[in-house]
Design brief:
The complex is a heterodimer of chains A (about 425) and B (about 950).
Chain A lengths: L6 H9 L20 E4 L3 H14 L4 E4 L15 E2 L6 H15 L1 H5 L10 E5 L2 H16 L5 E4 H7 L15 E5 L3 E2 L2 H14 L3 E3 L4 E6 L5 E6 L2 E4 L2 E4 L5 H8 L6 E10 L9 E4 L4 E5 L5 E7 L11 H14 L7 E12 L6 E4 L5 E5 L9 H14 L13 H4 L14
Parallel strand pairs in A: 1-2, 1-12, 2-8, 4-14, 12-19
Antiparallel strand pairs in A: 3-7, 4-6, 5-6, 9-10, 10-11, 13-16, 13-17, 14-15, 15-16, 18-19
Helix pairs in contact in A: 2-7, 2-10, 3-10
Chain B lengths: L3 E2 L7 E10 L2 E7 L3 H7 L6 E2 L6 E2 L12 E4 L6 E5 L9 E5 L41 H13 L14 E13 L3 H12 L4 E4 L17 E2 L4 H14 L3 E4 L2 E7 L3 E6 L8 E13 L3 E3 L12 E3 H9 L3 E2 L3 E6 L5 H9 L3 E6 L3 E7 L6 E6 L12 E4 L2 E5 L2 E3 L2 H5 L4 E4 L4 E4 L7 E3 L9 H10 L10 E2 L25 E3 L4 E2 H9 L5 H8 L12 H12 L3 H4 L11 E2 H5 L16 H6 L2 E6 L2 E7 L6 H14 L2 E4 L4 E6 L3 H8 L12 E7 L5 E11 L2 E6 L4 H15 L6 E4 L4 E7 L3 H8 L15 E6 L2 E6 L8 E7 L3 H10 L3 E2 L2 H10 L34 H4 L2 H4 L4 E8 L11 E3 L12 E9 L4 E9 L8 E6 L2 E8 L14
Parallel strand pairs in B: 2-8, 9-10, 9-15, 10-12, 15-28, 17-24, 19-20, 19-24, 35-45
Antiparallel strand pairs in B: 1-18, 2-3, 4-5, 6-7, 6-8, 11-29, 13-14, 14-15, 16-25, 21-22, 22-23, 26-27, 30-31, 33-34, 35-41, 36-39, 36-40, 37-38, 38-39, 41-44, 42-43, 43-44, 46-49, 46-51, 47-48, 47-50, 48-49, 50-51
The chains are: A alpha/beta (about 425), B alpha+beta (about 950).
């Protein structure tokens, strides 16, 4: 039995010295058999379990996590949420996610602190302007909120940005998605876990998958873990940077590379930056957390790795870029840096759907931008598992597209060239 | 009694008084003081307010572990937020103030939050502000609560303006790098020098010595007092030519490949900070140990200090931190503390014995009394037998933890040691990295010296110790939080974030059993002090609350930097003009003189157009276009990427990276080509010229030069190492001027009178070496405008002379905008305009560039995949707005209706759009679904709410037969 969270409940419990709060979720022993096993207790895996139970009535589900839930990329990202993607396929799935975000706190009964303070993408070159306009137009025609701001408009929306023409990369304009913003990653993970648990899902922590079982016909049949054998006829791999390791256990290969991606926070500062600012040209993406820390992502580490450790020079590059865009940040200090392992597809779009192993599904390849997709990723994978067929939202993101060539290239226009 | 300066003693220079201000109050300290010690000497007890509850806080420590004394330093551009008072050397005129507390740290209105903190317990914000909402409507969280929380939160104020300080980066390679110049580090460095190694020694403090700086009772070392020995050792090391020894220098990161990241605060010189990238064969981490505070109710009252801080105040800074002290240790290593208290004439009013505990403290803003109660058989304090003693100082110690941060962030492991009462290193780091001294749980001076010396094995015997304390008498176990439940709310674990034992208990009750979950839920250890004083207490409280052993719970992970480092320091010299340095062609000054308006292309500045005085962009571009179409124009093409390809397999290599054949290219000829990524999409284009049987000159786009070279090297080195071919960038070896227009030949003839420019002697798509304008030149006959054209290349340093000669011969300068208009009129693509990583050569109408006769090339297999050959692909077309005066927005989407209803199907987009003076109308190139089958069709280009009717047509608007190439 779980508590129902509310302001009134907080006051009531406070009067009782906070002694009455109950656990957010159970800590179950794994059962020998489930209907569905989801490998990976990050945001995507937990959301998948939640929507399976909530929308499809499949609650006999185990989420198997090798460490503690939310300890992978769910806890290592910069928490940016937006849906202003160029291509129809991407806009559809991310916009579906954004709508889920907008109701998520109430749905999960936890404040996920989804904060719609707006996401600015700065344009510094004529190429940026062209691509920004193209994206804004595509977004608007897809029903995704998007605006084009000229340089004074950028200054009015975010006074911290220097729009002087003599800047190294002058700000020529920006795209703005007002409904975009940030969310609290821990609350998202814990909220999905708590809500899934309430519906009967078993969340099994400290259970590392060591083998993937297949029956005589080659169909998925369960997993071996460090907490024993767990059987199920249906499984899903939702393990981000370690997907390729699991795929190898299941006997197939994925077109993804795993790289460290570093991020960092500064010491907390008084409120100074309310929106999210992104700049491809200078390579900065920054927001300020409610606590006051500047949250920033660095560029991807070039070497492939599973270590969750990045290299210093990548952080140095990032700090040089941050100071180029925001010179007043120079004397602010970095408090923490960390790395997650991102699973990057050749077209920078995810894979959600069937694998060559019957009964086994996969959700991976979100690369550097998976956090924002947590709700829609789980929602579409749950649909796919429950019905055995992809939803129109995730059908384009099939693994098969790397055979057909129907890629969804979200690198944007990579080359600026004359 | 209050805090004051002792009449004598301490490592301060009393002949050098220093004035500073704290929150506007003028105060005085001495050279050698930290801001913290000077505040203590001036009896400033409240040094700040806590983050959540705004509780008044004093100095807990005098070292790097300090959680409370967080200050804003300076103002304006010189401001530095969130500096630790304990880490700031006192300086004349320094103006510091606490980061929290309004109107002041002594009278803080935010203190109302502390009146009833229970509702604000750990994680309260997850449980409220949840209300349902309508999609697209901002709810109370977004409108009200979050803005309020954001305004209340935060610590220091961000500086304003550009940082006046500069920061340096430097590199050093040594045999042995030693972190910490305490006893173990000094012994390690001397031992390494003794066996001939090159050594780097880094000390965070302004003096060497470590524990010897603020402690009595240690043995004599090589017959000297410990501090004297340390200073002597430091001097010997610093004098050794094989050694680099630096004070005020902190190792903040340890990265793969034994790369130690070190931040130095130079005492003088042009740099405010310098980051050293240290690469060492061996790294000795002798970073010492950190004392742990005890957890008891009221343990955050100003006047409660770590025992080591009390000792350091007296011994190192000559400060008397109080008059009546309670001593509360969980171990027997208190002899030095008692000696120090006696020496400072501080009365020990009570010592809390092993069967007792502190159950509370009293005093508003400063400690006045301490409650002590005996422990009952159940381990809980007997409140009925409690006594209250007056005291203004409580010296507390919960034992010591080795400073493992550097070990842990490189992937090292730790494990609980029952014998040592702390977590110790347990392998897992890199080879060649080891801990020494207290960091290695060798807590006595003698053991630390031996460990430090021995950690660099071989050589002379190490320092000898005599007398003093041989070993710490009891490295105490952390006391489980034993206070009564009702009082736990005031027993603080994380001082900076106001996390109490009750918060950990709540987290445990709610199921946050993993240490990482409990940490994140309560925010214990997530402050700017990196949780140094909170980590172990958190684990201990969680262990107690969940009935587990502390060793099974472990500590939360640590991440670099070990201590905060300024953004600007990490950025180093890459700021201002040195961030992404501007690349200029040798003709740049000429462009400026001609009134050029520049655009950014990659790192280059390219002249976009040349505005005569008073001339706007549109007429300038039209004028430049007319010059090329009717006479002759000159374009600076020096920025084009150029790659030399050489070797017996050069032709075979190029055959694999271009879609068309390059092996059939004759020496003296050149050929346009596109290269694809392995997904079949156009990546870059350019002209390949064959200089000799085994030598080629390849051009790339200006912005893509580096990416193309990387791409080619990737294939050459990792996929085809068998090919004998070599690549070199020659972009900045050749400056180039494109001479284009019906008069191009005449202009070139004036420059190179000996060159036969007839179509038979120098046909289109060939190149010739010649002397032009007296310069040794390589001339390509190519055209990007559709007019007869030559690209004259000369050595980079002669670019300006060439430019001058071309203009003197009558050519009109034109910029990239005119270049775009001219090439778009011809339907020529530009990578990045007409391509975006999703466009094949077939889509662009360049099927003729794909050779069916040669073997494999990059992207060939992809081009045959079903999705790349299916109908419905976007194809390059021309667009004519029905209203000829309209110039479409680049980035406009192509739709079938003037009144879209989202989601409106999009057919394509406008890739390039210009006004053409030759056509006297606006025109555009676009990618449109099945575009080649739509010629003549009427569609709409929609941008920011405005739709323009357009007619789809062939993309070649001008001279479709190509006759003008030979005009």
């Amino acid at each position: 039995m779980q508590d129902r969270f509310s302001a009134g409940r907080i006051l009531r419990e406070a009067l009782g010295g906070n002694a009455g709060w109950r656990p957010w979720r159970r800590n179950p022993e794994p059962k020998p058999r489930y209907d569905v096993i989801i490998v990976g207790g990050g945001g995507h895996g937990l959301a998948t379990a939640y929507y399976l139970a909530k929308l499809h009535g499949i609650a006999n589900v185990a989420v198997i996590e090798k460490g503690w839930i939310g300890g992978g990329n769910a806890g290592r990202n910069t928490t940016i949420v937006r849906s202003n993607y160029l291509w129809d396929e991407s806009a559809a799935i991310y916009e579906h996610g954004l709508k889920l975000w907008e109701g998520l706190s109430a749905d999960l009964n936890i404040n996920v602190m989804f904060s719609q303070r707006g996401v600015l993408n700065l344009a510094h070159t004529l190429h940026d302007v062209r691509e920004g306009m193209r994206r804004v137009n595509a977004n608007q025609l897809n029903g995704v909120d998007a605006e084009w701001l000229d340089a004074p408009g950028v200054k009015a929306f975010c006074p911290l940005i220097d729009i002087s023409a003599d800047a190294r990369w002058p700000v020529l304009g920006a795209t703005l998605q007002r409904r975009g913003g940030t969310a609290r990653h821990d609350a998202v993970v814990w909220g999905y876990a708590r809500a899934a648990d309430r519906l009967g899902v078993d969340i099994i922590e400290n259970a590392e998958v060591t083998a993937i079982l297949r029956d005589g016909q080659g169909r998925f049949d369960g997993v071996e873990t460090t907490r024993g054998t767990i059987k199920a006829r249906t499984g899903a791999l939702v393990a981000a940077g370690h997907s390729s390791i699991l795929a190898a256990m299941a006997g197939f290969r994925l077109p993804i590379e795993s790289h460290p991606l570093q991020a960092l926070v500064s010491e907390p500062l008084k409120r100074l930056l309310d929106c999210v600012v992104m700049s491809n040209q200078v390579h900065v993406y920054v927001s300020q957390s409610d606590k006051g820390e500047l949250v920033m992502g660095a560029g991807i580490d070039a070497y492939t790795s599973y270590t969750q450790r990045g290299a210093l020079h990548v952080i140095e590059d990032q700090m040089a870029a941050a100071c180029a865009l925001f010179p007043m940040f120079s004397r602010v200090r970095v408090m923490r840096t960390w790395a997650g392992i991102v699973d990057v597809c050749p077209d920078a779009s995810p894979i959600i759907g069937a694998t060559p192993v019957p009964g086994l599904y996969i959700n991976c390849g979100w690369g550097t931008g998976g956090f924002k997709a947590t709700p829609s990723s789980g929602w579409t994978l749950a649909h796919t598992i429950a019905t055995g067929a992809p939803h129109p939202l995730n059908a384009p993101f099939a693994l098969k597209r790397f055979e057909t060539g129907a890629l969804i290239d979200e690198h944007g226009a990579a080359a600026v060239a004359h | 009694m209050t805090g004051s300066r002792l009449p004598a003693g301490g490592l301060i220079d009393r002949t050098k008084p220093i004035s500073f201000t704290f929150e506007g109050r003028a105060l005085t300290g001495y050279a050698g003081d930290s801001v913290a010690s000077a505040l203590l000497a001036n009896d400033v007890r409240i040094v700040g307010r806590s983050f959540k509850r705004h509780r008044p806080r004093g100095l807990l420590s005098l070292g790097m572990e300090e959680p409370n004394a967080i200050l804003n330093v300076g103002t304006g551009a010189h401001a530095a937020p969130n500096r630790f008072a304990t880490e700031l050397p006192l300086a004349q005129g320094l103006a510091v103030s606490p980061t929290r507390g309004w109107p002041s740290s002594r009278f803080d209105l935010g203190g109302v939050l502390d009146l009833w903190p229970t509702p604000l317990a750990a994680g309260f914000y997850y449980k409220t502000f949840i209300g349902p909402r309508l999609p697209g409507v901002r709810d109370a969280w977004n409108r009200l609560w979050e803005p309020l929380l954001r305004s209340l939160a935060g610590q220091g104020r961000a500086p304003e303006g550009v940082d006046p300080d500069a920061y340096d980066h430097a590199h050093i390679e040594v045999d042995v790098a030693v972190v910490g110049a305490g006893l173990a580090g000094l012994a390690a460095a001397e031992a390494a020098l003794g066996r001939g190694a090159r050594v780097a020694l880094f000390e965070r403090d302004i003096r060497p010595g470590g524990r010897a700086l603020g402690r009595d009772g240690d043995p004599r070392i090589d017959d000297a007092a410990p501090l004297a020995w340390a200073e002597g050792a430091w001097a010997r090391i610093a004098d050794n030519p094989r050694a680099t020894a630096k004070l005020r220098t902190t190792a903040f990161g340890l990265y793969d490949g034994r790369q130690l990241a070190v931040y130095e605060l130079p005492v003088d010189g042009p740099y405010a900070g310098r980051i050293w990238h240290v690469r060492a064969k061996e790294i000795v981490i002798a970073a010492g140990a950190l004392e742990r505070p005890m957890t008891f109710p009221g343990n955050d009252r100003p006047g409660v200090m770590l025992a080591s801080a009390v000792e350091a105040a007296i011994r190192r800074y000559g400060v008397r931190p109080g008059g009546q002290a309670v001593v509360f240790l969980n171990h027997g290593d208190g002899a030095g503390l008692r000696q120090a208290l006696n020496a400072a004439d501080i009365e020990i009013v009570a010592e809390v014995g092993p069967d007792e505990t502190v159950t509370g403290t009293q005093g508003f803003g400063r400690l006045q009394s301490v409650d002590i109660a005996p422990l009952g058989p159940d381990g809980l304090p007997r409140m009925d037998a409690r006594r209250r003693v007056p005291a203004d100082l409580l010296a507390t110690s919960g034992g010591w933890s080795p400073a493992l941060a550097l070990h842990l962030i490189q992937g090292g492991r730790q494990a609980w040691s029952e014998a040592d009462g702390c977590f110790i290193a347990a392998g897992g780091g890199q080879d060649g990295v080891r801990l020494a001294g207290a960091a290695n749980a060798r807590f006595s001076a003698a053991a630390a010296l031996a460990d430090g010396h021995g950690s660099t094995a071989g050589g002379a015997p190490g320092p000898k110790t005599t007398g003093g304390d041989a070993a710490p008498s009891g490295q105490g176990l952390p006391l489980a939080p034993i206070a009564a439940e009702r009082l736990k709310r005031q027993a603080f674990i994380d001082f900076q974030h106001d996390v109490t034992v009750a918060d950990i208990g709540l987290a445990a009750r709610e199921g946050f059993h993993a240490i990482e979950h409990a940490k994140r839920y309560t925010t214990a250890g997530m402050g700017t002090d990196q949780g140094r004083t909170a980590q172990l207490a958190t684990a201990a409280a969680l262990a107690a609350a969940t009935g587990r052993e502390i060793g099974d719970i472990g500590l939360s992970g640590l991440r670099p930097p070990v201590t905060p480092v300024p953004f600007g320091a990490l950025g180093g010299w890459r700021r201002g003009a040195l961030f992404a340095p501007v690349r200029q062609t040798p003709m740049h000054r000429r462009h400026e003189a001609l009134g050029a308006v520049f655009e950014d292309v990659g790192d280059w500045k390219r002249a976009r157009y040349y505005a005569a005085p008073g001339e706007a962009m549109a007429p300038a571009v039209a004028r430049e276009c007319r010059a090329v179409r009717t006479a002759v124009g000159a374009l600076d093409v020096s920025t084009l990427g150029k790659i030399a390809v050489a070797g017996p397999d050069a032709a075979a290599f190029l055959n694999r990276v271009y879609t068309n054949r390059m092996d059939t290219l004759a020496v003296g000829a050149c050929r346009y080509g596109v290269m694809l990524k392995d997904d079949g999409m156009v990546f870059d284009d350019g002209v390949v010229a064959r200089l000799g049987p085994n030598r080629f000159h390849v051009t790339t786009t200006s912005g893509g030069a580096a990416a193309v070279l990387n791409w080619l090297e990737d294939w050459r080195q990792t996929e085809w190492p068998d090919l004998k071919v070599w690549l070199a960038s020659v972009t900045e070896q050749w400056a180039g001027v494109a001479v284009a227009g019906p008069n191009a030949a005449r202009t070139l003839a004036a420059l190179a009178p000996e060159l036969d420019l007839s179509d038979t002697a120098f046909p289109h798509l060939t190149w010739r070496d010649a002397t032009a304008a007296g310069l040794s030149a390589r001339i390509f006959r190519v055209s990007f405008s559709g007019e007869r054209g030559y690209e004259i290349n000369v050595p980079w340093r002669h670019g300006e002379a060439l430019w001058d000669a071309v203009l003197a011969a009558g050519a009109i300068p034109y910029g990239t905008e005119a270049m775009h208009v001219l090439r778009a009129e011809k339907g020529f693509i530009v990578v990045g305009h007409e391509t975006d990583g999703t466009v094949t050569p077939v889509d662009l109408g360049l099927s003729w560039l794909i050779s069916a006769k040669k073997g494999d090339f990059i992207g060939k297999r992809a081009l045959a995949r079903p999705a790349l050959t299916a109908p419905g692909r976007k194809q390059l077309v021309g667009l004519e707005p029905e209203d000829a005066s309209v110039v479409l927005d680049e980035g406009a989407q192509i739709i079938a209706t003037a009144t879209p209803r989202p989601p409106e199907p999009m057919l394509g987009h406008v890739a390039s759009s210009y006004w053409s003076s030759a056509l006297n109308r606006g025109f555009a190139l676009a990618l449109v679904k099945d575009g080649r089958a739509r010629h003549g069709e009427r569609l709409f280009a929609w941008s920011l709410g405005v739709a323009h009717a357009v007619r789809v047509r062939d993309p070649v608007f001008y001279d479709p037969k190509g006759a003008r190439l030979h005009a």
